[in-house]
Amino acid sequence: MKRSRSVGASSPLNGIGKQDRDSRRKRKLAEISQALNVTPVDVAVLRRMAISEGGLLTDEIRCKVWPWLLNVPTNILPEKPEEVERENNKDYNQVLLDVQRSLRRFPPGMPDEQREGLQEELIDIILRVLGRNTQLHYYQGYHDIVVTFLLVLGERLATALVEKLSTHHLSLSLLFLYCRDFMDPTMDNTKHILNYLMPIIERVNPEVHDFMQQAEVGTIFALSWLITWFGHVLSDFRHVVRLYDFFLACHPLMPIYFAAVIVQYREDEVLDCECDMASVHHLLSQIPQDLPYETLISRAGDLFVQFPPSELAREAAQQYSQQMAASTFKDFDLTSEQQRPDKVLRRRRREKQALEGAAAGAMVATAQPTAARRFVRLAVMGLTVALGAAALTLVNTALEWVPKLDLHLFP
């Protein structure tokens, strides 16, 4: 998919007359209403509507459709969510800090009193879901997911959908598994979900793939995209909820495919970049805000059909094994065989102090960037290895989950 610099951010609807747009909108509204009013509700149609151009159109419709996409029965929900005990809650302080930093996720111009009330509800939703599901662990960025549901659905519905999303929809929560892998005793059964990204890029554009491999950039640049469903990196709320329509209606790995098409869309910028890790990582981590979202959504759907996760699973696992064997743990294992971690830390602290206080001039000036680049590369690789989920379990679950979708999801 070559990047077209003339493509705007709104959608392929650009250039279509207003009358035609209005007509298509009315048809979509009628189809959604009909799907909601039949018995049983036609969830396959709702999925197609969520995926197709324009998504679900309004938050009012999302309040009705999102619960069906997550199979949450709204008729049995309590009128009010239960009270949350904040005292002595192990996650409260971190959640509070993150929520306090989330001002930009609320609509501009919202009165302070209203925003502060929503922030309190946001804290309660997160703590409520974690309290009910002790196997889940909070991670920074989770609040970006929850605030989207809160702003669209309100506290009552958001609590129910966030809990379902976190425990079922994403193969026992793709989102939480990123954090749980950090906290598991070992990573023996951990596979890289992020490692699905490069095999997709390789199939779509081998030149970009090879360039990124040569730069040793890894996939950590896409981490915040995936664990927040792009909510943290996109400034326009309309684009965020449009992507949520798409992701909620699709396979749990669809955010990976969408990440791949963003990289492909930026082909020219990537290939024009300096071929080193720092430069490429900086470029890719700064996601453009004027993306042609409808075009990229359609392309991500096409790629999923062409290269399903089951086809990529073996390659992703092999890439993970190679990284484990050839990069990150090689240096750490050599060190840990001879020294305890506390000794390593003290040695590194002494080395840092020596570098800072050295008066060797040119020799230090030359050696320091080389060492810095090496340690930065190892740090990024280490994070990439640590962040993942049980890919085999995810694929097996996905194979059970996919047949529930209509086969014509991508018209």
State the helical fraction: 55-70%
Can you tell me the residue ranges where pLDDT is under 50 for at least 5 consecutive residues?
A: 2-13, 170-191, 326-345, 358-411
**Which structural class should the secondary elements be placed in?**
mainly alpha
Strand content of the residues, in percent? under 5%
| Radius of gyration from CA coordinates | 23 Å
SS elements, strand count: 0
The total count of helices amounts to 20
Rounded to the nearest angstrom, the distance between the terminal CA atoms is: 18 Å
Helices and strands in order, then pairings?
Elements: H1 18-37, H2 43-51, H3 59-69, H4 92-100, H5 112-132, H6 142-153, H7 155-169, H8 174-183, H9 197-204, H10 206-215, H11 223-227, H12 237-248, H13 254-265, H14 267-272, H15 277-285, H16 293-306, H17 309-338, H18 341-357, H19 362-386, H20 391-401
Helix pairs in contact: 1-2, 4-5, 5-6, 5-7, 6-7, 9-10, 9-13, 13-16, 17-19, 17-20
